[in-house]
Amino acid sequence: MTREQVHAAVSAYLRGEFGKLLVVRDVRRIHHVNSLGWRVRIVAPSREGDIEITELEVDERGVLAPLLDPLGVIDVLRASDNPPPSVRAEALDLGSFDADEPAPQSLRPEASMQIYARIRDHLRTGNLESARALYPRLLTNPEVRASALLGMADIERKLGNAQIATGYLEAAAREFADRFDVEGLEDAATAALDLLGAGAFQASAIHALLERSRARLRPLQSVSDAPALAGATESERMWLEMNAEVRTIRRGEYLVKEGEPSRAVWVIKSGILAVLLEKPEGGTRVIRCCFPGWLLGESSVLVDQDPRCTASLRAERMTEVFRIDAALLATVMDKNASLRERIAQAKQIHRIDSFFAMHETMGQLDAFVRDEMLACLQRIQSFDEDTLLFPAGEVPGAACLVARGELALHQGWELDSAPALVVPVDHFANVRDAIHGIASPFTTLARAGSTIAFFEGKKLLKLAESSPPHVAAVLERLG
May I ask the CATH architecture of the domain 376-477? Predict the structure, then answer.
């Protein structure tokens, strides 16, 4: 469904049930592990301003949940004279909503320019401490964060704090690598080489990031070289190569925009495409950059009715892509189950990656770390009946992410009684126990109708051990 369709559907529901009392004030895209949806803000207009009622969710099929209780709406309106928002939402008793924590206020471009001007003035006069105090304000602006970290590293180097400077350079390098800004990454690498010396630089994380980024930018020779198309037979590969059109996209140009009809599959031949998602609070956010070999636009061949683009794609430099018409590729997939499965897996991984990027905790990690987390994925499995996953008293061999349904955690072996905990959709379980080898006091059951993503515990442990401390801290907080 499009934003306009969601707005119209919810507005029609409100008019039918509440007349002109309630209206739709905002419609925002949300990303689940296994699906997309919309979160709709409902208000009651008044002379003094809007009275916040609640938020509803609409899934991809247009199903709205939960339905509003008229008595709950009355309770909210009565409480509006003394309005703490949390009380208003609780009065409805409409079920739990995951409240989005307010993100740090991003600086406007003009504010960033003013801060940079003040920093330059301090640096001209040799006032390093004042410049040092101003730089952190720039970190809330994603567009200048990497450059700000470079400046912070330079000040710490001049102040003799080599270890702190190295940390800032590594953070800057990760920011640049996240966007495949090789020129910026080379600037960070040059500063690190001067600071660390040749030997230490070769062994540094910054050098590894540089080499990894360069390797990923090698152009693709043929559309059939894309990993997601590896399941095609030799004749199918030749057919795909004959029917793939090459399109060149200028830097800053959009290939597709989120919510538009999806009519083709795209494979990056050369250059970089940024993937942008709509933020809950409005606007868009770059969640990753994709390099040659990436296949995008899977919805066009996997969604039966009115497929829509699930993200916007923007060229970050002059980029070439192979375009395969969805109808043509679908004919090949109908004859090749292996190819269809590969493309379906690519779509599922892209959805999990989008969920990670917009997740309150996982969103703190850069794309490289998220890639390594996705590499820990063992399988995605659906269950038709209640199924024992991990017994109490043993170390779980995997961490779980609920894509559909729920997990039931029973104390010990008390399976006949109510579970001690229920893990709902979009939540993790057993992450800390799997990473640290801790025997769980709970028996974990997958409920009938659930779909669970499993992440191998040993690989998660290696990821935590080889990553900076903040990565391990993020992983431990999951679930």
Answer: Sandwich (2.60)
The sign of the CA dihedral 21, 26, 32, 34 is positive
**Helices H / strands E in the chain, number of each:** 18, 20
284: β partners = 278
Instruction: Say whether 277 sits in a helix, a strand or coil.
Output: strand
pLDDT value at residue 69: 86
Is there a contact between 272 and 182 (Cβ–Cβ < 8 Å)?
no
Tokens 């003394």 belong to residue: 82
Edge-to-edge strands of the sheet including 254-256? 254-256, 312-315, 273-278, 284-290
Describe the chain by its helix, strand, coil percentages, rounded to 5: 45, 25, 30
Q: Read off the tokens for 4.
A: 């306009």
Question: What's the whole-model pTM score?
Answer: 0.71
Q: What angle do CA 88, 93, 99 make, to 5 degrees?
A: 65
Which among 324, 343, 325, 344 has a CA at the least distance from the CA of 232?
343
H helix or E strand, kind and range, residue 324 = strand 319-325
Structure tokens at 264: 């083709």
The whole-angstrom separation of Cα 88 and Cα 77 is 8
CB 407 within 8 A of CB 446: yes
Q: How far apart are CA 107 and CA 109, in angstroms?
A: 6
Closest CA to 254 of 234, 224, 282, 284: 284
User: Which sequence spans correspond to the domains of the chain?
Assistant: 3-92, 109-216, 223-357, 376-477
Residues 77-97 pLDDT 10s: 888 764 444 333 333 333 333
For the record, the structure tokens of 1 come out as 């469904």
Structure tokens at 277: 């998602």
Residue whose C-alpha is closest to residue 297's, from 319, 329, 270, 272: 329
Going by pLDDT thresholds of 50, 70 and 90, the confidence category of residue 145 is confident
CB within 8 A of 389, min separation 6: which ones? 396, 400, 407, 444, 445, 446, 452
The DSSP result for 91-104, as a single string, is HH------PPPPPP
Closest CA to 287 of 212, 346, 356, 206: 356
Strand partners of residue 27: 40
For the beta carbon of residue 20, count every other beta carbon within 10 angstroms.
9
Q: Which CATH architecture has domain 223-357?
A: Sandwich (2.60)
In Å, what is the CA distance from 201 to each residue of 161, 177, 474?
17, 17, 27
Question: Measured between alpha carbons, how far is 396 from 439 in angstroms, rounded to an integer?
Answer: 7
In 3D space, the residue among 7, 30, 10, 1 whose CA is nearest the CA of residue 99 turns out to be: 30
> What is the CATH class of 109-216?
mainly alpha
